[in-house]
Amino acid sequence: MKSDAEPDVQVALIGDLVGSRRSTSRTEVQQHLVAALAIANETTSAIQPLAPTIGDEFQGVYAEVGSALRASLVVRLALPADVDCRCGIGVGTLEIVGTSEYGHTQDGPAWWAARDAIVEAKRRESGQHKQLRSWFAVSDQVAADTGGGELDADLVNGFLLCRDELVSRLDARQRRLVLGVLRGTSQKELAASEGISPSAVSQSLRRAGAFAIIGATELQGGGAGPRAAGRSTAP
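Structure (tokenized):
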């Protein structure tokens, strides 16, 4: 039985922008990031909502792996097509060890695992998995406690390899459409905003494999935020 003093296992997410230093306006890139994080926070339940930290990095904390996976996808889709991000997701315990002008200073295995994950994602990008932007890691303690059952990192990372490959192939409109569905916008509303027919929305999503991205994200579970939970996704 877990004692009252034992910290809860949580899911930490660390993200950073990819190639932002090549941008001619870093201020504009940062504004895009803040806007993308806001969309992720309104569509995904979090213990600690995503927020910028230092430089190009951002971070958040979730109760469920599915929520962190969803948030990492929403941020990427919400960024402009010429801006991308990389995310590391880690499971473990964490604790507040102090405070600073950026808020609570945190440490612990969840953050270490998330840092290891983002380093691994970057390493794999330089190899065969050029489109990979996310990786998942479980702290040693949690892995030992669960025996690799509920939190099988290989299964999650297999999902991320496929998901990120599909997302990387989306054009700008397809990214907007997938994001719209995840935000709870109906296909009829998306059609109106894009100036196309509802059938064209459906065809575009189908051709891009977007329904696989959306369906797999829903199967991963995790809590949707108030905006997504309160909207209908019906055509």
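The chain has a mean pLDDT of 87. Residues 36 and 200 are 26 Å apart (CA to CA).
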